[in-house]
Amino acid sequence: MSVVLLLIGLALLIFMTFQGVNIIVSAILASVFVALVSGLDVVEAMTGTYMQGFTGYFASYFLIFLLGAIFGKIMADTGAAESIARWVMKIIGPKGAIMAIVLACAIMTYGGVSLFVVGFAVYPIAVSLFKTANLPRRFIPAALVFGSVTFTMYLPGSPEIQNIMPTEFFGTTPYSGLGVGVAIAAFTFIVGSFWLYWMVNRAKKHGEEFVSYESDKDIEQNDKKLPSIVQAFLPILGVIVGMVTYSQYFDANTATIFALLTAIIIALIIMFTYLSKLWDVMGKGANEAIIAACNTSAVIAFGKVAALTAGFTQIVDTVLQIPGPPLLSMAICINLIAGLTGSASGGLGIALPILSPIYLNMGIDPGALHRVSVMSSDGLASLPHNGYVVTTIRNISKETFKTAYLPVACMAVILTQISTVIAIILFTLLG
After folding, report:
1. What residues form the membrane-spanning segments (predicted)?
2. Which alpha helices (H) appear in 171-228, and where do they start and end?
3. Lowest CB count within 10 Å: 113, 213, 227, 330, which one?
4. How distant is the alpha carbon of residue 259 from its chain centre?
């Protein structure tokens, strides 16, 4: 019964999110419900466990959220993000519209630009390319999501928070699990590209074509002078080189902070004349960072309360008994929690403090644990209640879940599950 009550609490969190209730409010209400039905001291659970979980995560990762958001805003405001997107589109051309979108997103997300900044920057150009190639526009969200949160997240060295969090628990670096990580990222990219092209071509054969929306007239036609592609790429190069360099001397959190700070400084030096108002841009980035960090902290704090319940312990114990490689049971547990919370980082924040000592004591390679935990946090986290999925489909692309979500699910849910299983097999065979 305790498991059922916990699942009801998680379902309550998801339902309220679907209904548009603020995630911080949803997480608090769901936490109170879980504490009540599980027989916990509600006051202690909320003022102690919940707040410790909230403030602990916030304190650990806020600077990464802050610098990442400011960097993204600078890249957007200067036109650097658009410059990169247009350069990729120009190289590949309208006939490669889908791949141009995917690669533009991948370059920027691996370079530390915020997912949401990437989505808003690439979408207007994606509409133009899809219109020129007469492709069904309902596949634009799938292209944006595929390029932003799948193979780029798997790549070792990514500055995304999902690749940084495991370092704290496994004593690893952002480059851990390098060989398998690169191989699986390549597999995901190749298979996902063919799959996405197949879906689009199949839709075209069934008579689907590009349809203009009323909202298209709201897409800004940016005629301002953009930075050169060299100027636009240098800050991103700063992130990548910075991650490699600083990781030799500092822990992953510190290395990421320094890498993002280096990129911001480079961007300001070489593209300052393209900025509108520096302090306004930084202020907007800071505001977005606070919201993003608080939202994630709220979900993780809910998980801390849930982890006190007998139901959670039963779920973990059951998953640990799953036959097969230990990496498989860990991946399933992280995947389920990430799916229930609708957040990859939220799933990791809840699962890793509990699971990491268990699997480290089994003598499993920490690099394998790191990389598999990153991959398994994706999958079910991209179910419809995921914040980025909702934003990409509804707010950015102005599509509906009925028309656009299935291709997104194929890329971000099904394919990522397949990739994770293959990674587990490779690590098991090579370990």
Report:
1. 58-76, 96-127, 139-157, 177-198, 229-249, 255-275, 287-307, 327-352, 404-430
2. 178-205
3. 213
4. 19
Q: Which residues, 6 or more positions from 180, have their beta carbon under 8 angstroms from its beta carbon?
A: 368, 371, 423, 426, 427, 430
Q: What is the dihedral of CA 14, 346, 181, 367, to 10 degrees?
A: -140
Low-confidence ranges of the chain (pLDDT < 70): 17-18, 94, 116, 215-223, 341, 431
Distance between CA 77 and CA 274 in Å, rounded?
8
Instruction: Give yes or no for a contact between 84 and 104, defined as CB atoms under 8 angstroms apart.
Output: yes
> What CA–CA distances, in Å, run from 129 to 135, 204, 215?
9, 16, 16
Residue that is written with structure tokens 């851990």 in the block: 176
pLDDT in tens, 207-241: 999 888 876 665 555 567 889 999 998 998 888 88
* Phi-psi group of 114: left, alpha or beta (phi > 0 → left; psi -120 to 50 → alpha; rest → beta): beta
What is the Cα–Cα distance from 86 to 61, expressed in whole angstroms?
32
Contacts of 245 (CB under 8 A, 6+ apart): none
- Alpha helices (runs of H) in 38-114, residue ranges in sequence order: 42-44, 51-77, 80-92, 97-110
DSSP string computed for 360-377: HTTT--HHHHHHHHHHHT
Token pair of 281 as six digits = 């841009």
* Among 88, 413, 390, residue whose Cα is nearest residue 233: 88
Report the C-alpha gap between 93 and 45 in whole angstroms: 56
CA distance 409 to 342: 13
How wide is the angle at C-alpha 42 spanned by C-alphas 41 and 43, nearest 5°?
95
Count of structural domains, the chain? 1
In this structure, which amino acid lies at residue 370?
A: H
Q: In this structure, are residues 79 and 274 in contact, taking their beta carbons and an 8 Å threshold?
A: yes
Q: Is 225 exposed, middle or buried (0-12, 13-18, 19+ CB in 10 A)?
A: exposed
What does the pLDDT look like over 329-350, one tens digit per residue?
999 989 988 887 677 887 888 8
Determine the Cα–Cα distance for residues 336 and 344; give it in Å rounded to an integer.
10
Structure tokens at 149: 């949160």
Give me 240's structure tokens. Answer: 């990548």
Structure tokens at 13: 């969190």
Give the whole-angstrom CA distance, residue 107 versus residue 118: 10
Tell me the whole-structure pTM to 2 decimals: 0.79
Place of tokens 């190639």: 133
